[in-house]
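Action item from last week, closing it out:
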Amino acid sequence: MKSKSTAKKCYIEGLDQFLLYLQFQLGYSLKTIIAYKKDIELFYSYLENENIGIDKVGQETIRGFLFDQIKRKNKSHRTCGRYLSSLRTFFDYLCKNSYCSYNPFRLVSGPKIEIKYPKRLYEEDVKKLLDAFGSDSTCLSKRNKAIIELLYTSGIRASELISLTLSSFDFSSCSIFVLGKGNKERYVSFSSSCKESLLEYAKKVRPLLLEKSRGKHVKKDAFFLNSRGENLTVRGLEYIVKEISIKFANDSSLHPHELRHTFATILLESGVSLRTIQELLGHESINTTQVYTHLTQKDMQEEYDKAFNQIELKIK
């Protein structure tokens, strides 16, 4: 049996090796790796507070951790489900590489999670948003319109958009080369109206923004730049989308991912196969794409209820 100090040393070494495995073998993004690290360190902090050795972890310890997070820390079931997933993967790695003998997380089921369907916009909402740009001819407004149109007509992730370079675009075919999660490569199309907005930004706006940077903090050929001429970040993009939504639609909740949801839902409603949508979105599993079938079913149910409520009123 390992001593407590030996077990701790194995944990520290195992965690370091696990994070390298996520980065170099699985190709996970830095954001994902940091999330794994935080989840694992949170659990280890709980063990230290309870004076439980990493080698003594069992089902009772795991349930105690979940209880602590849900009841005392007010964490959601969904968040705790993510903790379990991260720790299960981590302990699988420890077992496979002889840091421990078994994975106790394989014996514990996650808390029941309420399904939250993704929010989507309707075409008239997006049209209203884009039409509003017509009255604003500033440089940043032209950049913002290009961003909204690209998110809406290509369905790419926020992290993918900020990683685009000048060479990512093929304007002759209205397509972009995207390096997605796990370094998965794919080509995605965008609309002809989006092409016009992108070209106007690339030719007239980007050079002006680039002048402000004076070569600092700019990745070579980065396509979208912030107001200081520096590389756009995910947080910066989220702020831009939120500000646009507040200004033109009086809605502070709009997020880049909702435009991705809207893109996928419109394709499904237009008869595009789930398999094709999966490829366009860059989903590893079609189960992830399946959520959009529930979303359209929910819309149909709402339309049905609305229609029959009107019929019932007429009958009465």
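Closing note: The first helix runs from residue 4 to 25.
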